[in-house]
Amino acid sequence: MKKYFSILYRSAAENFLAGLKPENRHAKKAAKIFLLQTALMSSRTRVTIRDIAREAGVSTATVSRVMNNPDTVSRRTLETVNAVIARHGYLSDGIAVSLALARTLTIGVVIPTITNSIYAASTQAIQGAARAAGYTVLLGVSEFSPTTEDQLIRQLLKRRVDGLILTGVERSSEIYESIGAARIPFVVTWKQADAAAGMASVSFDNYQGARLAMSHLVELGHRRIGLVCGRSKLNDRARERRRAYQDVMREIGTDVRHDWVHEADFDHAEGRRAMQKLLAAPSRPTAVFCANDIQAIGALFECQEQGIEVPGQISIVGFDDVPAAQYVRPQLTTIRVPAQAMGEIAAKRLLEAIDRRGEPVGQTLPVELVVRGTTRQAQD
């Protein structure tokens, strides 16, 4: 009877609230408080996981597996429990679960951008692995701003995430101290971390990947090679790729001209602008290494706009192997990075560390040169 009157009064309050004029602020506030109170009253009588288990004839652990890891139960059990859940409109009490496990069942992920499909692929893999383990991913996008990244990490720590997956190594010591104080594990991706410094990374070698791209151009006879890369001051991955370019140029005895090196943001327009400058250089390069595919595709578009034949007059190599690399014409020669595998393994390593309350185990993944249509033998 109490539940019946709660529903009745709630309905009346909702109708009352809907009919109020905008200027009736105090009445609106009172109605909203009443709605909140009745919602709390009704929540006290809602169905629990024990009720679902009793009606379905299974244990509470089985109900939990049906909701979080359905692949681990039989089809018959899955259908039986889901039917009871649907009949009652049951949702598990996340707060109660968190208190029981001393966890929030969330992990924080911070990436620099969502406009680059390579980061999307990695993040999707992280979410898939986390979801299979019953965890929710809280995602932050820094837009390549160290200040924004610091703020996002602090916000995730305030939400008491059980672990973090970060992009790159370079950030303030205060942030690492805050993570340490929170006593949660973290994994670095997209850049190898120093295990001796107590960091675990699931990544690939940016320096060696860039050397692989440069070696391909050198083997084709190119000596005048330009570089388009990210802003190395703010990006440790871009810095490693630039360092590889400089080392290879030094090894082949070619001085690095200032008008052959251009740092820019990671987008098509910036790649086009950088290529404009390279094509206008007094001694034009015969090849260009773009330290990511987005810039490389922009550079390719600029060459086509100016009537410069690729690879006939200039060769281009990218880095990442985004899906679009195989759809542009000519198809882009690039370095394939294991974005999806990296995300999946990073999530699994982090979840393992959360379960055993220890430190994650790092892993270095291989990269691969994918030769397509934008590179050929140097013509001079």
Keywords summarizing the entry:
Rossmann fold; disordered N terminus; 14 helices; 380 residues; alpha/beta; six-stranded parallel β-sheet; 434 Repressor (Amino-terminal Domain); four-stranded parallel β-sheet; 3 domains
Brief summary of the model shown:
The chain is α/β, with parallel strands linked by helices and 380 residues long.
Folded structure, characterized:
This protein has 380 residues and is an alpha/beta fold. Helix 7 links the parallel strand 1 (106-111) and strand 2 (136-141). It has helices at residues 2-19, 25-43, 49-56, 60-68, 75-88, 94-101, 117-132, 146-158, 173-182, 206-219, 236-251, 268-279, 293-305, 339-356, and strands spanning 106-111, 136-141, 164-167, 186-189, 201-203, 225-229, 261-263, 287-290, 315-317, 334-336, 363-364, 368-370. The N and C termini lie far apart (92 Å). It contains 14 helices and twelve strands. Helix 3 crosses helix 5 (75-88).
CATH architecture of the largest domain: 3-Layer(aba) Sandwich
CATH topology type of the largest domain: Rossmann fold
Strand coverage percent? 5-15%
**Based on CA inertia axes, which overall geometry fits?**
elongated
Classified by CATH, the class of the largest domain is Alpha Beta
Q: Name the CATH superfamily assignment of the largest domain.
A: Response regulator
- Output the number of helix runs: 14
Order of helices and strands: HHHHHHEHEHEHEEHEHEHEHEEHEE
Backbone CA Rg: 28 Å
- Protein structure class: alpha/beta
Distance between the termini: 92 Å
Percentage of residues assigned to helices = 40-55%
Q: What is the number of strand segments? A: 12
How would you write the strand order of the largest sheet?
2-1-3-4-5-11
The tally of domains stands at 3
The main sheet comes to:
6 strands, parallel
Low confidence ranges: 1-17, 38-44
Mean pLDDT over the residues: 87
